[in-house]
Design goal:
Layout (H helix, E strand, L loop, with lengths): L4 E5 L3 H12 L4 E5 L2 H4 L9 E6 L7 H10 L6 E5 L4 H9 L4 E4 L4 H32 L4 H11 L4 H7 L4 H14 L5 H10 L9
Parallel strand pairs: 1-2, 1-3, 3-4, 4-5
Helix pairs in contact: 6-8, 6-9, 7-8
Length: about 210
Amino acid sequence: MSLGTVFVVDDEEDVRESIRDLVISVGINCRTYESADAFFWADTESEPSAIILDVRLPGIGGLEIQKNLITKGATAPVIFITGYGDVWTAVQAMKRGAFDFFEKPFSSQELLSRIQAAITQHAEQLAEKVRLRNLDALIQCLTPREREILESLGLGKSNKTIAAELAMSIRTVEFHRARMMRKLCAHSREELTRIAIETRLPRVAPN
C-alpha cells in the first residue's frame, strides 16, 4: 500500500534519483521531472502528496512553479531545495506557504522526515475537503426554508429571532431544525451552527 506520492522537479538527474531511491525505500511513490514543462500536467491532488522543487531550473524556476500551483488551488505542500545559499529566495518561498527549504547538500534523513510530515498534512487537508464536500451535498437536500434557518443559525440567531424574521412560530422553527439535524446527521444546535459556518453559510452576513 502506497504511503503517498512525492513529485520531484530538479534538473540534476542524480538529485532526482537519490530522492526517488530515498522515498521508495519507505513505501512512498515518486515521480520525477527535469523541468517545469514536464511537471505541468502532474496531478498532485488525487492522493496525499508532497512536491519538491529546485529553486533554479531551466526556464521557469521553482518560485514561479509555486506561484502557479497556488493560482490553480493546489494544496500539496511544497519543499524547496537549492544549491545556493539564497536567503531572499528562502524568505519568499516561506512567505508563499512553502512547507520547508533545504540547501544542497542536505541530510537525507531530515528531508525524508519533512516529506513524511508534508504528506501527512496533505492527507489531513484532502480528508477535510471530502468531509466538507459531503456536507455540501447534504445541504443541497435541504428545502429553501431549512436553508434559510440554517443560515440564521450560522449567524448565531435564536429561535425566537428566526421565527420573528421569517414570520413563523417558534415551534415551526424547532420542527425545521429537527428535520435539518436528521438530514445533516447533526446531534445538537451547536453542531448545526458549526456546519453553517464550515460550509460558508450564510454567504454574506447582514449589516
